[in-house]
C-alpha cells in the first residue's frame, strides 16, 4: 500500500482514517533517512504517545521483508517487524515503513524456547532414568544420559536405531516391542516390567512407561519412553518371595512333623519335602551317638534311593565321622561344601564319586546336644544359596526338636509298656497263686475221694482170686484211671511250684500210648463232633516194633490227649487227624517221634511262637491256655523236644521227639515182697471222712489187722488214751492231716506225748508235697500221700512195726 | 573492534542490541560491501547498545540495527538488515566498481 498524490480527495480521506487508526505504525522516511510522517501507532512505538517523532533521523530503511528490529529508546526495549516500500512523497523518492510491535510474541516464543531448552537439559542430564523419544515406528530420536548409563549405548550410535534392540531375543520373536507400541498408541500410555538387554549383553529388570505423543491435530508423532532399572528391587522382591516360600515350607514341614511321633515317618516327611520343594539331588538323615562318636544312617529320601545305593549308603549303615566336615557338624556347626571336587576328605569324596558337587550338613541340635545330621547335596557346584543354608539350619533345629520329642515319646511308651508288662506279670502271678490255692484244695479233695476207689480196687485185685477176666480187666482200667487222676492232680501244682517229686520213669511204648489216647478221646473227636455236624476222620500211621523210651506214662498220655484236643479244636469244619509214630536214627541211640497232624486252620507265626506260653490261648473262654504249656512241661521233664509246624490255613503238625531208652536206664520192676508183712496189728485210723475210714479199714482188716476208727482228731486222741489206760494200746496210728478243729499234727503230738514209741503215720492229700520238701512234721514217723496205696501202707507198717508183727499178739 | 584510524576515508558504525539474527545478517551484508568496494579505506565499528545503552540516546539511534556513515560527511543512516546491497550502497553513496 502506498500513499500517492493523485489519489482522489474522497479516497484520500478514507486512507487518512485508515492510517490514523491502524494498529501498525507507519512512517514515511525521506531519502536522507529523516522521518517525514508518522501515524500515532508509530509515534507511540518509538517515543511514547505524547511525543512527536517527525524529523528524527532514523535512517533509510533497508530490510528484507519483515525484518525484526529493536527499538532501544522506547522506555523498555521493544521488538518490531519492519516492512519498507519505496514511495513518492512530495514529489521525491521516499520510503514507507510499516512497523509492527512483536515484543510480546517474541517474549512468548523466547519463554517457550527457554523452557524447551530447560526441559531438554533436564531430560538429557537425568541419570537415573533412561529417557528417549521414538518416532511412530519405534526408531530412537533422542537419548539422554540416563539411557546411556543404563543401556550402554552412546547417543551417536543409537539414534536412528530401533528400540527393539533393547529386548531379549525371546521377547523380540514374540513381538513384544511392537505390541507395546501398539498398546501405547491405542491407549495413550502403557507400562511394562521385564528383563531387557544392555549393549554388553547383560540383562536388567526394567520398569518401562511408554507414552504416545500426538500433535495438535491428533496425529501420532512418536513416543516418549522412560525406563528405570529395578533389578535390585526385583531381586529384593524375589529374595523376599524366596524367604516367604521357605517360611511356608518350614511351617508345612513342622506341622507335618508335629503330627507324627515316630522318627522314621518324621524323617520321611522332611526328606520328601526337601526333595519336592528344594529339588535336592540327594538327602538323608543320620542319627548320632555322642558317646560312641558314631553316625548311623536313619532314613534316605525316596528319590535319593538310587544314588544312595551307588554310594553304598543304606539305612542303618554306619558312617565314619571323618575329621573334616562331619566332625565339625556333630560339634553343632552347619557345614557347607560348595565344591566337592576341591575337598579331599572321605565322606565328601564319596559323594563326589557319584557326581554330587555341593553339600550341606546341618546338625540336628537340641539345646547343646547334637542328635543327628541332615545331609543334602546337589549335582551342581555352589548349589546352595546362603538363604537356603539358613533355611536348612532353621529346619534342622525344628527337626531336632521333633527328634527329641519322638525319643521322649518312645521312652514314655517304653515305660508304659514296661509298666504294663510288670502289671501283667503281677496279675499272672496273682492268678497263678489263686490257681495254686485252688489246685491244692481240689487236689486234696480229689485225693481223698479217690482213696476208697484206689484201696478197694487194689484190694479186690489182690484178694478176689476168682474174679472173671472181664471183671479183672475192668478193675485194672479203674486202677490205671485212678493213677492217671492222681498224677494229673499232682501236676496241677506244677504251674505254681517246682516239680515236687521225681516220679519214677518206666519204659513207654509210644504206639500203645497213641492207641490209648485215641480210645480215651473218642468221645471228643467222634461223638461231640458229630453232634455239631462235623466229621473228623482219625487215622493212625504207627511204625511197628518201636523201641521204648523212658517216661511217665500218665504224663505222656495226657500230653497226647492235649494235642488231640487241640487238633480237634483246629478243625471246626471237620478234617483229618493223623497220629503217627516213627523211629528216627537207630534203635539204640535214635529217637521215637510221635506226631499229631491236623488239616485245620493252622497258626500264623506270632501265634506259633506264643502257643506254649502258659495262659496264651486262641480259644477264648473255652481255653485255659494251659494245654500246650503242659505238653511243653512234659517234654522238658522227659528231655524230649516238641516242634510245631504250622501256617495259616495249612493245618498244624505237633511233633514230640523222645530219646530211645538205653538199657542202663531201664530199672527192672521190683517184684512185690511177699514176706515180712506184719499182721494182727492193733491199728487206730483217724479221719473225718467216713468213706475213707471204711475203705482203709476194710483193706487193712483183709490183711489181718485189728482196726479201730475215730471220726476226727479229738475222738482219735481220746480213743488212743483210753486204749492205753485199758492196757490194750495200739501198735500204730494212721491219721489224716487235714481235719477240722484238731488236725493230724495235733493228733500226732498228743499220741507221742502219751506214748513216744507208737508210730504215727500221717495221710494227706498234700502228701507228695510234704514228701518232696522233707517236711515231715515232728511227732510223725511217716507221711503217705492220698490216695493211699495198699502196698505203700503195708511197707510202712512193716518198717515201723516189725516187733509187734513178730512177737506181740494181742 | 577496529581502531579508528585518521587516514581512513570511510568510517562506518553498526549499532546493534545483542547479536540477533537480523543484526548478524546486517553485519554480514555490510562486511560484504566493505570488502568488495571499500577495501583498505574503511573502518567498521560494531556498537552493542546492550553494552553501552547510553549511546542510543547520544547518537540518536531509534532502531537497531542501524548503520551510520560517520565519514565521509555528511552523516548518513540506514536502518534494517541491509539485505538490499545496491540500496545500501546507494544510501552510503558508494560508487560501484573498485575504487
Number of separate strands of chain B: 4
- Kindly name the structural category of chain A: alpha+beta
Helicity of chain B, as a percent range: 25-40%
Compute the average pLDDT of chain B.
83
Which range does the strand content of chain B fall in? 15-25%
CATH second-level architecture of chain B: 3-Layer(aba) Sandwich
Strand content of chain A: 15-25%
The CATH class label of chain B is Alpha Beta
**Quaternary organization:** heterodimer
Number of helices of chain A: 25
Spatial sequence of strands, sheet with the most strands of chain A? 14-13-12-17-16-15
CATH topology of chain B: Glutaredoxin
Number of helices of chain B: 3
Mean pLDDT of chain A: 83
- Reading the helices and strands of chain B in chain order gives EHEHEEH
Spatial gap, N to C terminus of chain B: 25 Å
Integer tally of domains of chain B: 1
Gyration radius of chain A (Cα, Å) is 64 Å
Percent helix range of chain A: 40-55%
Please name the two chains that share the biggest interface, counting residues whose Cβ lies under 8 Å from a Cβ on the partner chain: A-B, 24 and 32 residues
Biggest beta sheet attributes of chain A? 6 strands, antiparallel
Note down, in words, how this protein is organized.
The complex is a heterodimer of chains A (810) and B (99). By secondary structure, chain A is of the alpha+beta class. Helix content of chain A is 44%, strand content 23%. Chain A has a 6-stranded antiparallel beta sheet with strand order 14-13-12-17-16-15. Chain A has a 5-stranded antiparallel beta sheet with strand order 2-1-6-5-4. A 5-stranded antiparallel beta sheet of chain A has the order 8-7-11-10-9, with helices on both faces. In chain A, α13 packs antiparallel against α14. Chain A is rod-shaped and about 210 Å long. Chain A starts with 8 loop residues before the first helix and ends with a helix. Chain B is of the alpha+beta class. Chain B has a single domain, classed as 3-Layer(aba) Sandwich (Glutaredoxin), CATH 3.40.30.10. Chain B is 30% helix and 24% strand. Chain B has 3 helices and 4 strands. Chain B has a 4-stranded mixed beta sheet with strand order 2-1-3-4, covered by helices on one side. Chain B is globular, with a radius of gyration of 13 Å. The chains are: A alpha+beta (810), B alpha+beta (99). Chains A and B meet through β3, β4 and β5 of A and α1, β3, β4 and α3 of B. β3 of chain A pairs parallel with β4 of chain B.
